[in-house]
Protein backbone atom coordinates (compact mmCIF):
# COMPACT_ATOMS: atom_id res chain seq x y z
CA UNK A 1 0.00 0.00 0.00
CA UNK A 2 2.78 2.37 0.96
CA UNK A 3 4.59 1.70 -2.29
CA UNK A 4 1.43 2.37 -4.27
CA UNK A 5 0.96 5.63 -2.47
CA UNK A 6 4.57 6.62 -3.13
CA UNK A 7 4.24 5.84 -6.83
CA UNK A 8 1.01 7.81 -6.94
CA UNK A 9 2.68 10.79 -5.26
CA UNK A 10 5.64 10.68 -7.63
CA UNK A 11 3.30 10.43 -10.60
CA UNK A 12 1.27 13.41 -9.34
CA UNK A 13 4.41 15.47 -8.89
CA UNK A 14 5.67 14.60 -12.35
CA UNK A 15 2.29 15.34 -13.89
CA UNK A 16 2.15 18.75 -12.15
CA UNK A 17 5.61 19.66 -13.39
CA UNK A 18 4.65 18.48 -16.88
CA UNK A 19 1.45 20.56 -16.75
CA UNK A 20 3.32 23.63 -15.53
CA UNK A 21 5.99 23.32 -18.19
CA UNK A 22 3.78 22.59 -21.18
CA UNK A 23 0.38 24.11 -20.44
CA UNK A 24 1.02 27.14 -18.26
CA UNK A 25 4.22 28.80 -19.46
CA UNK A 26 4.00 32.58 -19.38
CA UNK A 27 5.08 33.29 -22.90
CA UNK A 28 2.94 36.14 -24.19
CA UNK A 29 5.54 38.91 -24.26
CA UNK A 30 8.30 36.71 -25.66
CA UNK A 31 6.14 35.31 -28.40
CA UNK A 32 4.74 38.72 -29.38
CA UNK A 33 8.20 40.19 -29.83
CA UNK A 34 9.46 37.00 -31.48
CA UNK A 35 6.56 37.01 -33.93
CA UNK A 36 7.20 40.63 -34.86
CA UNK A 37 10.96 40.10 -35.35
CA UNK A 38 10.40 36.86 -37.29
CA UNK A 39 7.84 38.49 -39.56
CA UNK A 40 10.07 41.43 -40.42
CA UNK A 41 13.21 39.36 -40.76
CA UNK A 42 11.63 36.76 -43.01
CA UNK A 43 9.91 39.48 -45.03
CA UNK A 44 13.29 41.09 -45.80
CA UNK A 45 14.87 37.72 -46.48
CA UNK A 46 12.19 36.47 -48.87
CA UNK A 47 11.98 39.84 -50.58
CA UNK A 48 15.47 39.03 -51.94
CA UNK A 49 13.95 35.95 -53.59
CA UNK A 50 11.69 38.10 -55.78
CA UNK A 51 14.30 38.51 -58.52
CA UNK A 52 14.80 34.75 -58.81
CA UNK A 53 11.22 33.50 -58.64
CA UNK A 54 11.12 32.39 -62.24
CA UNK A 55 14.59 30.82 -62.11
CA UNK A 56 13.89 28.68 -59.04
CA UNK A 57 10.18 27.96 -59.05
CA UNK A 58 8.84 28.05 -62.60
CA UNK A 59 9.03 25.57 -65.46
CA UNK A 60 11.31 28.04 -67.24
CA UNK A 61 13.84 27.81 -64.45
CA UNK A 62 16.35 25.26 -63.22
CA UNK A 63 13.84 22.67 -62.06
CA UNK A 64 10.75 21.78 -64.04
CA UNK A 65 7.88 20.59 -61.88
CA UNK A 66 7.57 17.33 -63.80
CA UNK A 67 11.26 16.49 -63.36
CA UNK A 68 11.35 16.91 -59.59
CA UNK A 69 10.02 13.43 -58.67
CA UNK A 70 12.63 11.86 -60.98
CA UNK A 71 15.63 13.43 -59.27
CA UNK A 72 14.55 13.77 -55.64
CA UNK A 73 12.41 11.19 -53.98
CA UNK A 74 10.30 12.96 -51.39
CA UNK A 75 6.81 11.49 -51.28
CA UNK A 76 3.97 13.28 -49.49
CA UNK A 77 5.65 16.64 -49.95
CA UNK A 78 2.88 18.64 -51.54
CA UNK A 79 3.13 22.09 -53.00
CA UNK A 80 0.40 24.41 -54.20
CA UNK A 81 2.83 25.44 -56.92
CA UNK A 82 2.55 21.99 -58.45
CA UNK A 83 -1.21 22.36 -58.77
CA UNK A 84 -1.31 26.01 -59.82
CA UNK A 85 1.35 26.89 -62.34
CA UNK A 86 2.25 30.00 -64.33
CA UNK A 87 3.96 33.31 -63.68
CA UNK A 88 0.88 35.13 -62.45
CA UNK A 89 0.11 32.48 -59.86
CA UNK A 90 3.75 32.39 -58.81
CA UNK A 91 3.75 36.12 -58.19
CA UNK A 92 0.38 36.04 -56.44
CA UNK A 93 1.73 33.37 -54.08
CA UNK A 94 4.95 35.25 -53.53
CA UNK A 95 3.25 38.56 -52.80
CA UNK A 96 0.66 36.88 -50.56
CA UNK A 97 3.49 35.22 -48.67
CA UNK A 98 5.30 38.54 -48.17
CA UNK A 99 2.07 40.25 -47.15
CA UNK A 100 1.21 37.51 -44.66
CA UNK A 101 4.67 37.90 -43.08
CA UNK A 102 4.08 41.61 -42.69
CA UNK A 103 0.61 41.21 -41.19
CA UNK A 104 2.00 38.57 -38.86
CA UNK A 105 4.75 40.96 -37.78
CA UNK A 106 2.30 43.77 -37.05
CA UNK A 107 -0.14 41.51 -35.23
CA UNK A 108 -2.97 41.71 -37.77
CA UNK A 109 -4.78 38.39 -37.47
CA UNK A 110 -1.45 36.89 -36.36
CA UNK A 111 -2.51 33.25 -36.27
CA UNK A 112 -4.20 33.33 -39.63
CA UNK A 113 -1.28 35.27 -41.10
CA UNK A 114 1.18 32.71 -39.72
CA UNK A 115 -0.97 29.89 -41.11
CA UNK A 116 -1.08 31.46 -44.57
CA UNK A 117 2.65 32.18 -44.45
CA UNK A 118 3.33 28.61 -43.36
CA UNK A 119 1.27 27.03 -46.16
CA UNK A 120 2.88 29.23 -48.82
CA UNK A 121 6.34 28.76 -47.37
CA UNK A 122 6.01 24.97 -47.43
CA UNK A 123 4.71 25.20 -50.99
CA UNK A 124 7.79 27.09 -52.13
CA UNK A 125 10.14 24.76 -50.27
CA UNK A 126 8.49 21.62 -51.66
CA UNK A 127 8.40 23.01 -55.18
CA UNK A 128 12.19 23.14 -55.38
CA UNK A 129 14.02 21.58 -52.47
CA UNK A 130 17.35 21.91 -54.21
CA UNK A 131 17.52 25.62 -53.42
CA UNK A 132 16.34 25.43 -49.81
CA UNK A 133 18.89 25.89 -47.06
CA UNK A 134 19.29 26.50 -43.32
CA UNK A 135 17.12 29.53 -42.81
CA UNK A 136 14.30 28.01 -44.93
CA UNK A 137 14.27 24.90 -42.76
CA UNK A 138 14.21 26.87 -39.52
CA UNK A 139 11.51 29.20 -40.84
CA UNK A 140 9.35 26.14 -41.65
CA UNK A 141 9.30 25.18 -37.99
CA UNK A 142 8.85 28.66 -36.57
CA UNK A 143 6.03 29.59 -38.94
CA UNK A 144 4.22 26.37 -38.11
CA UNK A 145 4.57 27.00 -34.38
CA UNK A 146 3.45 30.61 -34.72
CA UNK A 147 0.12 29.39 -36.16
CA UNK A 148 -0.80 28.32 -32.64
CA UNK A 149 1.15 30.80 -30.52
CA UNK A 150 -0.63 33.09 -28.06
CA UNK A 151 -1.78 36.43 -29.43
CA UNK A 152 -3.32 38.30 -26.50
CA UNK A 153 -3.99 37.91 -22.80
CA UNK A 154 -7.75 37.58 -22.92
CA UNK A 155 -7.92 34.29 -24.72
CA UNK A 156 -9.77 31.10 -23.97
CA UNK A 157 -8.21 28.40 -21.82
CA UNK A 158 -7.77 26.17 -24.82
CA UNK A 159 -6.10 28.87 -26.89
CA UNK A 160 -3.75 29.76 -24.07
CA UNK A 161 -2.78 26.12 -23.50
CA UNK A 162 -2.05 25.64 -27.22
CA UNK A 163 -0.01 28.83 -27.22
CA UNK A 164 2.01 27.54 -24.29
CA UNK A 165 2.69 24.20 -25.97
CA UNK A 166 3.85 25.74 -29.22
CA UNK A 167 6.00 28.26 -27.37
CA UNK A 168 7.78 25.31 -25.72
CA UNK A 169 8.06 23.55 -29.09
CA UNK A 170 9.83 26.63 -30.47
CA UNK A 171 12.29 26.66 -27.57
CA UNK A 172 12.98 22.95 -27.87
CA UNK A 173 13.39 23.27 -31.62
CA UNK A 174 16.26 25.71 -31.13
CA UNK A 175 17.86 23.18 -28.78
CA UNK A 176 17.38 20.36 -31.31
CA UNK A 177 19.04 22.43 -34.04
CA UNK A 178 22.10 23.13 -31.89
CA UNK A 179 22.31 19.63 -30.43
CA UNK A 180 22.40 17.94 -33.83
CA UNK A 181 24.63 20.57 -35.32
CA UNK A 182 27.12 20.18 -32.47
CA UNK A 183 27.02 16.39 -32.19
CA UNK A 184 27.33 15.94 -35.96
CA UNK A 185 30.50 18.01 -35.82
CA UNK A 186 32.02 15.41 -33.52
CA UNK A 187 32.03 13.03 -36.49
CA UNK A 188 34.17 15.40 -38.54
CA UNK A 189 37.95 15.18 -38.32
CA UNK A 190 38.37 18.85 -39.23
CA UNK A 191 36.56 19.86 -36.05
CA UNK A 192 38.76 17.53 -33.98
CA UNK A 193 41.91 18.86 -35.65
CA UNK A 194 40.88 22.46 -34.99
CA UNK A 195 40.95 23.32 -38.69
CA UNK A 196 37.25 23.60 -39.46
CA UNK A 197 37.00 27.37 -39.08
CA UNK A 198 39.97 27.77 -41.43
CA UNK A 199 38.22 25.61 -44.01
CA UNK A 200 35.19 27.88 -43.82
CA UNK A 201 37.21 31.08 -44.08
CA UNK A 202 39.34 29.72 -46.93
CA UNK A 203 36.29 28.73 -48.98
CA UNK A 204 36.08 31.71 -51.32
CA UNK A 205 32.61 30.69 -52.47
CA UNK A 206 31.10 31.42 -49.07
CA UNK A 207 33.59 33.67 -47.24
CA UNK A 208 32.78 37.34 -47.35
CA UNK A 209 36.38 38.54 -47.73
CA UNK A 210 39.84 37.14 -48.31
CA UNK A 211 40.92 35.79 -44.94
CA UNK A 212 44.46 34.76 -45.91
CA UNK A 213 45.83 36.93 -43.08
CA UNK A 214 44.08 34.67 -40.57
CA UNK A 215 46.52 31.87 -41.44
CA UNK A 216 49.03 33.60 -39.15
CA UNK A 217 46.79 33.08 -36.14
CA UNK A 218 46.43 29.30 -35.75
CA UNK A 219 45.69 29.58 -32.05
CA UNK A 220 42.65 31.79 -32.66
CA UNK A 221 41.43 29.47 -35.44
CA UNK A 222 41.70 26.39 -33.22
CA UNK A 223 40.13 28.15 -30.26
CA UNK A 224 37.19 29.31 -32.39
CA UNK A 225 36.76 25.77 -33.77
CA UNK A 226 36.66 24.06 -30.37
CA UNK A 227 34.59 26.82 -28.79
CA UNK A 228 31.95 26.47 -31.53
CA UNK A 229 31.59 22.72 -31.00
CA UNK A 230 31.50 22.98 -27.22
CA UNK A 231 29.02 25.83 -27.26
CA UNK A 232 26.65 24.04 -29.68
CA UNK A 233 26.74 20.79 -27.73
CA UNK A 234 26.14 22.41 -24.36
CA UNK A 235 23.59 25.01 -25.47
CA UNK A 236 20.56 22.66 -25.24
CA UNK A 237 21.39 21.87 -21.62
CA UNK A 238 22.83 25.10 -20.25
CA UNK A 239 20.12 27.35 -21.68
CA UNK A 240 17.70 25.79 -19.17
CA UNK A 241 20.02 26.39 -16.21
CA UNK A 242 19.09 29.83 -14.82
CA UNK A 243 22.66 30.72 -13.84
CA UNK A 244 24.09 29.88 -17.26
CA UNK A 245 21.23 31.08 -19.48
CA UNK A 246 22.43 34.66 -20.02
CA UNK A 247 26.04 33.80 -20.68
CA UNK A 248 25.17 31.01 -23.13
CA UNK A 249 22.84 33.37 -25.01
CA UNK A 250 25.42 36.16 -25.09
CA UNK A 251 28.04 33.74 -26.41
CA UNK A 252 25.50 32.65 -29.04
CA UNK A 253 25.02 36.24 -30.16
CA UNK A 254 28.80 36.60 -30.56
CA UNK A 255 29.04 33.31 -32.44
CA UNK A 256 26.30 34.18 -34.90
CA UNK A 257 27.51 37.74 -35.24
CA UNK A 258 30.89 36.28 -36.21
CA UNK A 259 29.26 33.92 -38.70
CA UNK A 260 27.20 36.75 -40.20
CA UNK A 261 30.29 38.91 -40.50
CA UNK A 262 32.72 36.38 -41.97
CA UNK A 263 30.53 34.28 -44.23
CA UNK A 264 27.73 35.62 -46.32
CA UNK A 265 24.69 34.35 -44.48
CA UNK A 266 23.60 37.39 -42.45
CA UNK A 267 19.91 36.43 -42.44
CA UNK A 268 20.64 33.01 -41.03
CA UNK A 269 22.71 34.62 -38.27
CA UNK A 270 19.89 37.05 -37.48
CA UNK A 271 17.32 34.25 -37.54
CA UNK A 272 19.24 32.29 -34.93
CA UNK A 273 19.87 35.35 -32.76
CA UNK A 274 16.17 36.26 -32.95
CA UNK A 275 15.27 32.81 -31.62
CA UNK A 276 17.00 33.74 -28.34
CA UNK A 277 14.05 36.02 -27.62
CA UNK A 278 12.20 32.83 -26.72
CA UNK A 279 14.57 32.25 -23.82
CA UNK A 280 14.35 35.72 -22.30
CA UNK A 281 12.22 36.53 -19.26
CA UNK A 282 9.35 39.02 -19.51
CA UNK A 283 11.35 41.61 -17.53
CA UNK A 284 14.29 41.22 -19.90
CA UNK A 285 11.99 41.69 -22.87
CA UNK A 286 10.66 44.89 -21.22
CA UNK A 287 14.20 46.17 -20.64
CA UNK A 288 15.11 45.39 -24.23
CA UNK A 289 12.01 47.15 -25.59
CA UNK A 290 12.68 50.19 -23.39
CA UNK A 291 16.25 50.33 -24.68
CA UNK A 292 15.04 50.10 -28.28
CA UNK A 293 12.49 52.84 -27.63
CA UNK A 294 15.09 55.04 -25.96
CA UNK A 295 17.59 54.69 -28.80
CA UNK A 296 14.98 55.10 -31.51
CA UNK A 297 13.68 58.28 -29.86
CA UNK A 298 17.26 59.60 -29.61
CA UNK A 299 17.83 58.82 -33.28
CA UNK A 300 14.51 60.44 -34.18
CA UNK A 301 15.43 63.60 -32.26
CA UNK A 302 18.83 63.70 -33.95
CA UNK A 303 17.29 63.23 -37.39
CA UNK A 304 14.67 65.93 -36.75
CA UNK A 305 17.39 68.30 -35.50
CA UNK A 306 19.58 67.59 -38.49
CA UNK A 307 16.69 68.18 -40.91
CA UNK A 308 15.76 71.40 -39.10
CA UNK A 309 19.38 72.64 -39.12
CA UNK A 310 20.00 71.71 -42.71
CA UNK A 311 16.82 72.87 -44.36
CA UNK A 312 15.04 75.37 -42.15
CA UNK A 313 17.69 77.40 -40.32
CA UNK B 1 -25.19 25.89 -6.34
CA UNK B 2 -25.01 22.15 -6.86
CA UNK B 3 -25.52 22.57 -10.61
CA UNK B 4 -22.58 24.95 -10.67
CA UNK B 5 -20.43 22.43 -8.82
CA UNK B 6 -21.41 19.65 -11.21
CA UNK B 7 -20.62 21.91 -14.17
CA UNK B 8 -17.22 22.77 -12.70
CA UNK B 9 -16.54 19.11 -12.04
CA UNK B 10 -17.26 18.16 -15.65
CA UNK B 11 -15.31 21.13 -16.96
CA UNK B 12 -12.29 20.03 -14.94
CA UNK B 13 -12.71 16.48 -16.22
CA UNK B 14 -12.95 17.78 -19.75
CA UNK B 15 -9.83 19.89 -19.31
CA UNK B 16 -7.90 16.96 -17.88
CA UNK B 17 -8.96 14.69 -20.73
CA UNK B 18 -7.89 17.37 -23.17
CA UNK B 19 -4.53 17.71 -21.43
CA UNK B 20 -3.95 13.98 -21.76
CA UNK B 21 -4.70 14.10 -25.49
CA UNK B 22 -2.39 17.08 -25.87
CA UNK B 23 0.32 15.27 -23.90
CA UNK B 24 0.17 12.37 -26.32
CA UNK B 25 0.54 14.83 -29.22
CA UNK B 26 3.47 16.55 -27.47
CA UNK B 27 5.32 13.25 -27.08
CA UNK B 28 4.57 12.31 -30.68
CA UNK B 29 5.77 15.65 -32.05
CA UNK B 30 8.88 15.71 -29.89
CA UNK B 31 9.73 12.18 -30.94
CA UNK B 32 9.23 13.18 -34.58
CA UNK B 33 11.40 16.31 -34.54
CA UNK B 34 14.11 14.84 -32.35
CA UNK B 35 14.47 11.64 -34.33
CA UNK B 36 13.85 13.06 -37.83
CA UNK B 37 17.44 14.18 -38.58
CA UNK B 38 18.45 10.51 -38.46
CA UNK B 39 16.28 9.79 -41.48
CA UNK B 40 18.31 12.01 -43.78
CA UNK B 41 21.83 11.09 -42.73
CA UNK B 42 24.30 8.45 -43.84
CA UNK B 43 22.41 5.57 -42.20
CA UNK B 44 19.52 6.07 -44.62
CA UNK B 45 16.91 5.00 -42.14
CA UNK B 46 13.36 5.22 -43.27
CA UNK B 47 10.82 6.93 -41.04
CA UNK B 48 8.17 4.54 -39.74
CA UNK B 49 4.75 4.99 -41.34
CA UNK B 50 3.29 6.87 -38.39
CA UNK B 51 5.97 9.55 -38.73
CA UNK B 52 6.73 9.81 -42.44
CA UNK B 53 3.47 11.44 -43.53
CA UNK B 54 3.56 13.94 -40.69
CA UNK B 55 7.21 14.88 -41.25
CA UNK B 56 6.94 15.07 -45.02
CA UNK B 57 3.64 16.91 -45.20
CA UNK B 58 4.79 19.73 -42.93
CA UNK B 59 8.35 19.77 -44.26
CA UNK B 60 9.82 18.80 -40.90
CA UNK B 61 12.28 16.23 -42.19
CA UNK B 62 15.46 18.20 -41.83
CA UNK B 63 19.08 17.39 -41.19
CA UNK B 64 20.47 19.90 -38.74
CA UNK B 65 24.10 19.59 -39.66
CA UNK B 66 25.39 23.07 -40.33
CA UNK B 67 29.05 22.81 -41.34
CA UNK B 68 29.01 19.21 -40.11
CA UNK B 69 30.43 16.61 -39.99
CA UNK B 70 33.01 18.71 -41.84
CA UNK B 71 32.50 22.27 -43.04
CA UNK B 72 30.79 22.14 -46.40
CA UNK B 73 32.07 21.06 -49.79
CA UNK B 74 34.77 23.19 -51.46
CA UNK B 75 33.73 25.81 -54.04
CA UNK B 76 31.73 24.10 -56.77
CA UNK B 77 30.49 25.39 -60.12
CA UNK B 78 28.82 24.00 -63.18
CA UNK B 79 30.36 24.91 -66.50
CA UNK B 80 28.16 24.75 -69.57
CA UNK B 81 28.41 25.13 -73.29
CA UNK B 82 25.50 25.67 -75.65
CA UNK B 83 26.22 23.99 -78.97
CA UNK B 84 24.35 24.63 -82.22
CA UNK B 85 23.43 22.19 -85.00
CA UNK B 86 26.84 22.54 -86.68
CA UNK B 87 28.90 21.99 -83.54
CA UNK B 88 29.65 25.66 -82.99
CA UNK B 89 29.61 27.02 -79.44
CA UNK B 90 26.88 29.61 -78.99
CA UNK B 91 27.60 30.49 -75.41
CA UNK B 92 29.69 29.16 -72.54
CA UNK B 93 29.62 30.17 -68.90
CA UNK B 94 29.64 29.04 -65.31
CA UNK B 95 26.79 28.67 -62.90
CA UNK B 96 26.63 30.24 -60.42
CA UNK B 97 28.51 33.15 -61.86
CA UNK B 98 32.05 33.68 -60.69
CA UNK B 99 32.84 36.09 -59.08
CA UNK B 100 29.53 36.73 -57.34
CA UNK B 101 27.73 39.46 -59.31
CA UNK B 102 24.98 40.18 -56.78
CA UNK B 103 24.72 42.99 -54.29
CA UNK B 104 22.46 40.82 -52.14
CA UNK B 105 24.48 37.72 -51.31
CA UNK B 106 21.36 35.72 -50.47
CA UNK B 107 20.72 35.38 -54.21
CA UNK B 108 24.09 33.77 -54.70
CA UNK B 109 23.61 31.57 -51.60
CA UNK B 110 20.60 29.84 -53.18
CA UNK B 111 22.59 29.21 -56.33
CA UNK B 112 25.43 27.73 -54.31
CA UNK B 113 23.01 25.41 -52.48
CA UNK B 114 21.46 24.43 -55.81
CA UNK B 115 24.80 23.61 -57.44
CA UNK B 116 25.89 21.59 -54.40
CA UNK B 117 22.70 19.56 -54.70
CA UNK B 118 23.12 19.14 -58.43
CA UNK B 119 26.66 17.82 -58.43
CA UNK B 120 25.75 15.04 -56.00
CA UNK B 121 24.51 13.08 -59.02
CA UNK B 122 25.33 13.77 -62.64
CA UNK B 123 21.82 12.83 -63.66
CA UNK B 124 20.38 15.41 -61.30
CA UNK B 125 22.58 18.18 -62.70
CA UNK B 126 21.67 17.24 -66.22
CA UNK B 127 17.92 16.93 -65.56
CA UNK B 128 17.80 20.24 -63.74
CA UNK B 129 19.95 22.34 -66.05
CA UNK B 130 19.18 20.91 -69.47
CA UNK B 131 15.61 22.25 -69.94
CA UNK B 132 16.71 25.62 -68.58
CA UNK B 133 19.79 25.95 -70.79
CA UNK B 134 18.02 24.67 -73.89
CA UNK B 135 15.63 27.63 -73.63
CA UNK B 136 18.44 30.13 -73.28
CA UNK B 137 18.93 30.57 -77.03
CA UNK B 138 16.89 29.64 -80.05
CA UNK B 139 19.50 27.65 -81.96
CA UNK B 140 20.67 25.44 -79.11
CA UNK B 141 20.95 21.84 -80.19
CA UNK B 142 23.12 20.32 -77.48
CA UNK B 143 24.27 21.22 -74.01
CA UNK B 144 27.59 20.15 -72.51
CA UNK B 145 28.00 20.20 -68.77
CA UNK B 146 31.00 19.90 -66.46
CA UNK B 147 31.38 20.33 -62.74
CA UNK B 148 34.32 22.33 -61.43
CA UNK B 149 35.53 21.57 -57.95
CA UNK B 150 38.08 23.95 -56.48
CA UNK B 151 40.44 23.01 -53.70
CA UNK B 152 40.66 24.75 -50.37
CA UNK B 153 44.28 25.55 -49.54
CA UNK B 154 45.49 24.48 -46.12
CA UNK B 155 46.60 27.09 -43.61
CA UNK B 156 50.23 25.98 -43.93
CA UNK B 157 50.15 26.35 -47.72
CA UNK B 158 49.04 29.94 -47.29
CA UNK B 159 51.71 30.61 -44.64
CA UNK B 160 54.41 29.11 -46.87
CA UNK B 161 53.13 31.03 -49.87
CA UNK B 162 52.64 27.91 -52.00
CA UNK B 163 48.94 28.57 -52.54
CA UNK B 164 46.48 31.45 -52.49
CA UNK B 165 42.81 31.56 -51.60
CA UNK B 166 40.61 31.81 -54.69
CA UNK B 167 43.23 30.57 -57.16
CA UNK B 168 41.19 30.17 -60.34
CA UNK B 169 43.56 27.62 -61.83
CA UNK B 170 43.31 25.07 -59.02
CA UNK B 171 40.26 22.99 -59.83
CA UNK B 172 39.19 19.56 -61.01
CA UNK B 173 36.99 19.45 -64.09
CA UNK B 174 34.58 16.57 -64.18
CA UNK B 175 32.47 15.78 -67.22
CA UNK B 176 28.76 15.59 -66.37
CA UNK B 177 26.79 15.24 -69.59
CA UNK B 178 26.51 16.02 -73.28
CA UNK B 179 22.82 15.98 -74.14
CA UNK B 180 20.60 16.93 -77.01
CA UNK B 181 17.83 19.40 -76.33
CA UNK B 182 15.53 17.31 -78.52
CA UNK B 183 16.16 13.66 -79.30
CA UNK B 184 17.84 13.52 -82.77
CA UNK B 185 15.64 11.97 -85.45
CA UNK B 186 17.25 8.86 -86.83
Can you walk through the features of this model?
The complex is a heterodimer of chains A (313) and B (186). Chain A is mostly helical. Chain A is 73% helix and 0% strand. Chain A folds into 3 domains: 26-155, no CATH class; 188-280, no CATH class; 285-313. The longest helix of chain A is centred in the last third of the chain and has 31 residues, at 282-312. The radius of gyration of chain A is 23 Å and the shape is globular. Chain B has 2 domains: 2-57; 76-180, no CATH class. Chain B has helices at 2-35, 49-57, 105-118, 122-134, 155-160, and strands spanning 76-83, 89-95, 142-150, 171-180. In chain B, β1 (76-83) and β2 (89-95) form a beta hairpin. Chain B starts with a helix and ends in a 6-residue tail after the last strand. The interface between A and B is large, with 85 and 67 residues.
Domain count of chain B: the total is 2
How much helix, percentage-wise, in residues of chain B? 40-55%
Helix content of chain A: over 70%
Radius of gyration of chain B: 27 Å
What would the average pLDDT of chain A be, to the nearest integer? 90
Return residue spans of chain B where pLDDT drops below 50 for at least 5 consecutive residues: none
Radius of gyration of chain A: 23 Å
Residue-averaged pLDDT of chain B: 85
Question: Could you spell the SSE succession of chain A in H and E letters?
Answer: HHHHHHHHHHHHHHH
Q: What structural class results from the helix and strand content of chain B?
A: alpha+beta
Q: Sheet bearing the most strands of chain A, described?
A: none
Amino acid sequence: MKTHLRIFLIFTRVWRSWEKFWFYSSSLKQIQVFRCVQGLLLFCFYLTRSSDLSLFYSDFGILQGAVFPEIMHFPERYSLLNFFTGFVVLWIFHLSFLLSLLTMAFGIYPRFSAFLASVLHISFIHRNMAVAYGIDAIATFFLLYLCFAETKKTQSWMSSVLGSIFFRFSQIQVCVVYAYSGLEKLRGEKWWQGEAIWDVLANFQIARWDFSWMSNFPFILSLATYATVLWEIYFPVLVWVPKCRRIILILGVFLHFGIGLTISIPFFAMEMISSYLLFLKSEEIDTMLNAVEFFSSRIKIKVVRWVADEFFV
Amino acid sequence: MSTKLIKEFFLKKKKNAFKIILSVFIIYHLFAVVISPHFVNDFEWKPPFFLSSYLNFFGLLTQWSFFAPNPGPPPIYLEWELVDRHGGILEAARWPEFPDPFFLRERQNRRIVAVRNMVEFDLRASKMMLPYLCKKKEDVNRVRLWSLIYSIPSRLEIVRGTAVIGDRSQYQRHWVSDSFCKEPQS
